[in-house]
Amino acid sequence: MAARSYWACVLCQRAVVARMMCRSMSAATHPQPQVDFLKGELHRKHQGVTNLKTLHLPGELYTAAQSIIYRAQITRLTDRAQSLTNFLWSRKRSIEDSTLRKKAVSLEKELWEEAMQKAGDVDEQALEDRIRKKVFSELKRTTYRWTPMKYDEELGVVYMAARLAGGYAAVKRALHEIKKRDPSFAPQTLLDFGSGLGTVAWASHSWWGDTLKEMVCVDSSAPMNILAERLLKGDDERAEPHIKHVYFRQFLPVSPKVQFDLVTAAFTLSELQNSKDREETVMTLWRKTSSYLVLVENGTKEGHQMLMEARDALLHVFRFREKIFLKLFSVMKVFVIYS
Ligand SMILES: C[S@@+](CC[C@H](N)C(=O)[O-])C[C@H]1O[C@@H](n2cnc3c(N)ncnc32)[C@H](O)[C@@H]1O
């Protein structure tokens, strides 16, 4: 297999603007030495600047989505789609147990010190109970509570109304980064983890068409798989799917030997409960990748940080375990992360 080397992290405009604002604010307070990152190049020619053309949903996908929305008759769909978008964009990662424990210990220490300063005759057991209760209620009040999403039939349609077009565009853009840099890459097999509406299958098909001979879509939600299949069939269960060779599963293929040319996870890492689950998932997907692993998340600070966690985990393995193997066989697997 030809050597492929490339990794890209492109941030959406919002993140860039936010970062530029932070940078200019900190530069104002702490003057920084000027570094010529552009090496004399014009800013608009810098390789990190990309032109975002307007993308359109494939006609068949658009028509099928409209039909499903019409038939679902969901009340206040527009409001619910807007609320879901807001929720997903402001969602944070759950706080890690170790961080929570540290926070509790430091709060408890502070409260004990406060109580000791007041001195006097105290019933130690009663004080301890009071402090413990206070710690518990403070943590409950100030800690972000991550809640898992249950994508049932109705939430699936709301998600589709809210995110189908945006999700499709983001994935298509991310895959374009591969297409642009590696035009000879022609994937035959695809594994999409957390496939939801099947946007990755549609976007991949738009770039590589019928070279794709097997697309395995894995989603733990059976209603989501049914919805994705309805989209493929133009909301007509007797019709042939618009894209062939798409297979829906609720679990990842068990055998570690099964690999796919292209492995993707779009907006799915944010659905996993903690950093351990995310890291394990990324490593499993990496083992299933024979050429490219593509991870896409929202262009928010949280989305960006989740991708950085994934990148660090992958680089760690790459540096310490896979380097020798890859060198021996002159194979290079690549990851593309996009927010
Ligand atoms: C936010 S949706 C993204 C869907 C799709 N990738 C897209 O871009 O439209 C996340 C999906 O991940 C699925 N999911 C969450 N946890 C999962 C898990 N452990 N295994 C497989 N799928 C999972 C959910 O059911 C949901 O359909």
Q: What does it look like?
A:
The two termini are 29 Å apart. The relative contact order is 0.14. The protein is built from ten helices and seven strands. It is of the alpha/beta class. It has helices spanning 13-29, 59-72, 77-90, 97-118, 124-142, 153-181, 199-208, 222-232, 275-287, 301-329, and strands at 9-10, 189-193, 214-218, 246-249, 260-266, 289-296, 334-338. Among the domains are: 9-19 and 165-338, Rossmann fold; 97-142, no CATH class. α3 crosses α6 (153-181) and α9 (275-287) runs parallel beside α10 (301-329). It has a seven-stranded parallel beta sheet, with helices on both faces.
Short summary:
The protein has a 7-stranded parallel β-sheet with strand order 1-7-6-5-2-3-4, with helices on both faces. Among the domains are: 9-19 and 165-338, 3-Layer(aba) Sandwich (Rossmann fold), CATH 3.40.50.150; 97-142, no CATH class. Residues 1-31 and 323-331 have low confidence and may be disordered.
